[in-house]
Records
---
Amino acid sequence: MSEELPIILVKDVDYTYPNRTVALKHINLNIYKGELIGIMGMNGAGKTTLIRTLNGLIRPLKGNVYIDGENIKAKNIGTTSKKVGIIFQNPYHQVFSNTVEEEIKFSLKSLNLSKEEIQNRTNDVLNRFNLKKYKERSPLNLSGGETKKLALASIFCRDPEILVFDEPTLGQDAKEIDFFVNLINKEKDRGKTIIIVTHNIEFAIEYIPRTILMAGGRIVADGLTPAVLTNKFLVDTSSLVLPQIRQLNIALNEMGIQCPEDINSKSEMTHFLTNYLKNKSTKV
């Protein structure tokens, strides 16, 4: 990994908003092709500002961002967005065409495709996201979940190398979260680099291998998700809460039940408790 060039390199980046809010302080970050990364922290930690620097929506006041080895400082947003697709937290900020089908076609216009290619990609993505039946409907008349799918579809149709999601599980039910998990797993299998900004600590510890923790515009931790999110000092520093599995683990140990600290999933905890109860009933 150390000999491989990162697909995303953020070097000494600072950013302050016009109202003098300091959002990013000396950010240094390497992300490699095919990684699935989580970015976590309280509101105002700098998470959304950081991802906006990745496709040029925000230009750092100091430092540089490199995508696939190229400094994006002089590149326009249209060029960078071909490689970096960002799906924002509020899908209504991302859709504006008269119909669902037109929304997809508009997203494809800058890729210099033929009309036939645009139509084929549009049909494919409408089918993939189960939106074909809504293709003549206004995006404003879709449900929240369907609008989120349309925002996803309008980025996925461009097939960018890097996919960035801002709070994708917020307000989603279990079925919609399952759809999203299947989606990112398929993209990861295709070698895509995926970044997920989330407050959902249970989702992160179950699905995201590496987590970047932010607080006060700085990166305070970067490592394997179980190690980062079960560290009480780091979690407290970032104003988050320990995962429920970790809280149960601590409670069991306080009760005198020696529960291994490396249990981080529901299935592992279920297995441990099942065996514990079996052994206890056998002894009785």
---
Amino acid sequence: MATIDAIALSQDLIRCPSVTPADAGALDVLEKALKGLGFVCHRLPFEAPGTARVDNLYARLGTGAPHICYAGHTDVVPTGDISAWKHPPFAAEITDGVLYGRGASDMKSSIACFAAAVARHTQNGAPKGSISLLITGDEEGIAINGTKAMLGWLKEHGEVPDHCIVGEPTATARAGDTIKIGRRGSMRVVFTARGIQGHTAYPERAQNPLPALATLVSRVAAAPLDNGTDHFQPSTLVFTTFDVGNPASNVSPGEAVAACNIRFNDLHTPQSLEDLMRAHAAAITGETGIPIDVDVQTSGVAFLTQPGPFTELLRDAIGRISNSPPEYSTSGGTSDARFIKDLCPVAEIGLPGGTMHKTDECMPLDEIHRLVDIYAAILDAYFMAVP
């Protein structure tokens, strides 16, 4: 069987400037490497109305059960001011044992690590089941034409895995030191208070929405949502804007808008939180007479992969490489695991994320080698004793 150099493959992937939604050849690089291992590859382009086309890749080695899937993304965030980078963002330079480039942390190196781990695992023969990769080019974007669309294709074609590992950079200090077993949900709430515009010299002829909206913001921000759970930290609500758009000093506005972001645990649903926000708004309207509209957009629902045989297999395999078991965590933002959890049990294991999305994003070569060891140990354990 072929072998894969995780460092070289990481460099080849980083050298493709695949800023969402562009692919820039990244999936071609990966597909070539996977075909060399015997994977059957499917390119899956999707383009929802009004959006840019996104190219994706699904690759599978083997046809039987059990079936473990690795999910990740080759798209990256923009570089920002390139002149601020000491190392060109798409040159994949290595300096003093550190690989630099956009995607070194999030998450091209992780994809290369998994491909290298598969090559190592299959050196003595095909897997006793199936290994697949679900790779999107739309994770950093609107997430419509990527993993979410691909999961529909998997269901239609009978390609549903038994378990999934997402390779996001979830580690804190060392590769694999954290296993994400869930994620908080995320939603944006926009409050629009509607009054009557008027001259500030005649406030009795106007209906200023600002005091009512300010009271609402203060009340909502001060009310704790919960105290957390065994696996989740307390839910948080952060106001991100308070806008009036009124340049005149002698006009009281007719409308004011405030928006907040809620990161919520599994004590809540999007509907329960929407009901709560609407109740707050209705109470302020009742006190002030100012109508307040509430608009809610949910980008992710809280979920938890309950600790059990699958998570313990992952933890034990990592512990054998690291000499210490990783921590379970549900912290951080959202990932494509929020879609995959509807298909099969999912956990996230990857590289340290300290430099992701930053100027001079980078990854020590030792961490890349370590993650290859971890992924290989997981594959060995998985096919030896399926959870």
